[in-house]
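idk why but the lab printer keeps eating my pages so im just putting this in chat instead. protein + 2-oxoglutaric acid:
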Amino acid sequence: MNHDYPLTQQQITAYQRDGYIQLNDVLTGDELTSFRDAVDAAVKQDTVKLDPNRKKNSYEQIFIQCVNLWHRYPAVKPHVLSAKLGGIAARLSGLPLRLWHDHALFKEPHTGAKTPWHQDTPYWPHEQKMHQLTIWIALRDATIQNGCMSFLPGTQKFLDIEPVNLADPQDLYAVAPQTKGIKPVTCELKAGSVTVHNGMTFHYAGPNRSDGMREAIAIIYMPEGTTYHKVAHPVTDPLNLRQGQKLDGELFPIVG
Ligand SMILES: O=C(O)CCC(=O)C(=O)O
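predcted complex ->
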């Protein structure tokens, strides 16, 4: 396990208690700029054919989302498979992990809508739901103005809530009345800093009201041994998996 980034026992305990944590200056210098340049080039290439004046559906209004860049862009791959990032995720969760997938999440200037409050794991085709986690990396500064992330501490324990439809979100308190009274924590990040959240922790990002793109990439990890639950998902649909099959092999490498 890679211990490049120092984590204290207090931080690990805070992550496990709150279901999220902010870690500053995880990527700096060349490590940050080469990751950002690689992701920028990949997103540009992935979206080159999109008409900028197209009518966007409600989901597309939230962000440009490009999934599993590491499969298609050799310059992105070493960053997504980074032992430093995988090591952070493994130490916070206390478990051996595999990569689930990456996705670049670029909120467009002025038009990028809010990302509604939601949990992630209910969307995923996994039989086990409790210990997935995401490292959300600010490739440029993420601020309240351009749509940084907010979290509802402790909500990773709310396990049986219906998935929120991001394109047509219900009121948070209607879907999850248990969250009433929990104060959101908003995490502004300098480029290269990250938040890490458990896939069950409720989170939100505001709209982008700035003149620049909000550039982030999220890398998602799942415990080694996670098995397939047959529901539609773009990452697993092409793979023809059996219910209960272990998600492993080269598409889901061990990373921490
Ligand atoms: O980047 C965003 O706006 C939301 C990200 C998110 O929901 C996630 O990484 O799970």
